[in-house]
Each structure stands twice: as C-alpha cells, then as structure tokens.
Specification:
By secondary structure, this protein is mainly beta. It has a single domain (about 5-45, about 55-180), classed as Distorted Sandwich (Deoxyuridine 5'-Triphosphate Nucleotidohydrolase, Chain A). It is built from three helices and 15 strands. The protein has helices at about 5-15, 25, 115-120, and strands at about 20, 35-45, 50, 55, 60-65, 70-75, 80-85, 90, 105-115, 120-125, 135, 140-145, 150, 155-165, 190. The strands form four sheets. Strands 2, 5, 7, 9, 10, 12 and 14 form a seven-stranded antiparallel beta sheet that branches. A three-stranded antiparallel beta sheet has the order 1-8-11, with no helix packed on it. The model has no long low-confidence stretch (mean pLDDT about 95).
C-alpha cells in the first residue's frame, strides 16, 4: 500500500524518514510522494565490472555540488551522469506502525522522475530503497533528446514514494552503498 505525503510527514516526525526536506515539502507536498532535490552531479569515467563475487564501479568525477556553490549543469545530447539528492533517506531496519491498531510493517521507497525530465528528453534510472538503508540517493540521468538540458542544483527532480512490505524480510540492508556512497574506489567483494 502506498503512503500519502501527509502520512509520510507524520511518520517523518517520529522516524526521520527523510532529512533536510525543503520547506515546500514540509508544508505543502502534493499527492502521495515527496519531491527530492538534486545536490550533486558526477561524470562516469573508466570501466566498471560486475562479477559473481566481486564488483568495481567506474571512477567518477564531481561536476557540481550545491555545497560548492555551482548552481547549474548542462547535459548535452548523449551525456550520462549520476545525480545525488540533497536529502538523506533513513528507512527503518525494523518494522514500524503505520496506523494505530495495525500490525507493524517494513517500508521501502521507490523513486520516480518528475515529468519535466522526460518531457525534456532526459532518461531517469533509479532503484528501490530497502529497509535499513540510510544515506543520500544516487540516480542516473541521460540526455536522450536532441537539445541541451540545463538543470539547476537545488531543483526538485524526483519524487519518492513509500510503500508497505507484506511479510517478513530475511535481513535489512547492510550493503556497501550504505551512507550514500556514489562509487567504489577499488575492486570489492559483493555481500
């Protein structure tokens, strides 16, 4: 079951599901999700590897970070970048009560692009976020259009939706991307 934005904010006060939310989202969100803002953008350089027991992600180069003052990035046709959120997500590892009188449940988060991205020829790729994950979120953006696309850091670019998990899980997320790491700097074992 998908949670409303109002329910997310109610649970946020108790469980800190999302830190560093914009005033708009804290006071006047729309629909069932919460918009998140772009905080930094990275270019991918070099090779990656995904094996049965090991992996290595390509090296990355920071193009822009809102903390450094750069405010806008241009994506030319064919550009592919990674973008991280300004907000930090904290999905509880344990089950929580969503509505009084109901059984506790785990939460996951799914993220969807704001429609301006697709209307501008920008392909967005995200993943689900499991119970137990804590950190900023990282997504892929690719300009598949024919024109340049400008994105301002601090702009709302994705919408996070929380859903209840039916049943138990074997274990909460403890993986190597915990804390919002964007890339691995060496070959590492998969857990």
């Amino acid at each position: 079951m998908i949670l409303s934005a109002k329910k997310i904010l109610e649970l946020n006060r108790k469980h800190r599901l999302i830190e560093n939310l914009a005033d708009r989202e804290l006071n006047n969100p729309e629909g069932v999700g919460i918009d998140l803002r772009v905080g930094s953008i990275y270019a991918i350089e070099g090779e990656g590897f995904l094996g049965e027991t090991e992996r290595r992600t390509p090296e990355i180069r920071k193009i822009a970070d809102i903390k450094d003052g750069k405010r806008e990035v241009v994506l030319n046709p064919g550009d592919f970048v990674l973008a991280t959120t300004m907000e930090t997500v904290n999905l509880p590892a344990e089950k929580i009560v969503i509505e009084e009188g109901q059984q506790p449940t785990h939460l996951i988060a799914n993220v969807h692009p704001r429609s301006t991205l697709q209307r501008s020829g920008i392909y967005f790729r995200g993943t689900k976020t499991d119970p137990g994950y804590r950190g900023q979120l990282t997504f892929a953006l690719a300009n598949l259009g024919r024109s340049r696309f400008r994105i301002e850091l601090g702009a709302r670019f994705v919408n996070i939706v929380f859903e209840q998990v039916v049943g138990d899980i074997h274990r909460a997320y403890e993986g190597q991307w915990q804390g919002g790491r964007v890339s691995a700097d060496r070959l590492e074992k998969q857990v």
